[in-house]
Amino acid sequence: MSHPEINSGWLHVHVAGDDPPSVLPVYVARPSLPGRHPTVLVGFELFGITPYIRSVADRIARQGYTAAVPDFYHRLGRERIELSADAEGRSRGLELLQALDRTGVARDAQAVLDHLSTHPDANRRTAFVGLSVGGHIAFYAATQIPFAAVAVLYPGWLTDTDIALGRPEPTLGLTPGMADLGTTLLFLAGDDDRLVTAQARDQIADQLRVAGVRHEMVVYPGAPHGFFCHERDTYRKPVADDAWRRIAALLTAELASTP
Questions:
Q1: What are phi and psi of 8, to 5 degrees?
Q2: For 94-107, how does the pLDDT look when each residue is reduced to its tens digit (9 = 90+)?
Q3: Which of 154, 219, 208, 201 is nearest to 183 (CA)?
Q4: What ranges in 117-236 are assigned the alpha helix state H?
């Protein structure tokens, strides 16, 4: 059922375990009509919680879910960092990315899930949709936290240790944890992606298969990194439309039951 009317705004969630304690800003969009809405976390790109990322969350909310975008950069400076999708923004984003660590990311994701679970409209089934860096975050979180479903779009650095989230061992090596938690994974990438290369995709596919993760990997011919973002010249509408159809179908299939 589509929910064209949504409510959106910001929450501030206390993160347990941080010393000193931290407060996590979260953009949340949910259907206006009452109902038991499963929670879908959204992992942002390198550029933070931009208007584009908020539009993705709004789109998910219109499908009947509570969509929440944690500000994973919140320990690194001012709140609600929004970077421009240009060379300067990319350079600053890479600096911020090197300061993200696995412990903080996992704490943030769990804190948001715990907070939203107390809402009267909450449904205990959860999912995670991550784009680029957010795809890496979603992949990692799914090795630590039980999600019914995870969709990742062109997640970089899973097979190496080039970023802090990929250390001490590449995040891909943690894949058996995802299988143990019973998560279904949808992996979407473009064949012309210079960050998620064919070699990396082969390694990821092999590890998912060996670990026994229920998954589907879709590689779009001729599509570059960022094909889903309608605001940039990397946008490929037919590919983005197909990706959205697959994401929506995954969420419907895995979040349909109400525990």
A1: -140, 160
A2: 999 999 999 999 99
A3: 208
A4: 133-141, 175-181, 198-211
